[in-house]
Amino acid sequence: MRQILFAVFSAVCGENPEHVWAPGGEALPCCERCTGLYAGALAAIVLRLWLRPRASGQSLRIHGLFLLQLGLFVFPWMPQGAVLRTISGGLFGFGVVAFLWPAVCAWLPAARVTTFGGMAYAMGLAGCLGLTPAIAEWGGKAGAFVLTGLVLAGAVALAALAGANVARCLIELLAIILDKKRPEFSQ
Question: To pair with 175 at 20 to 30 A between CA atoms, which of 91, 160, 165, 167?
Answer without folding.
Answer: 160
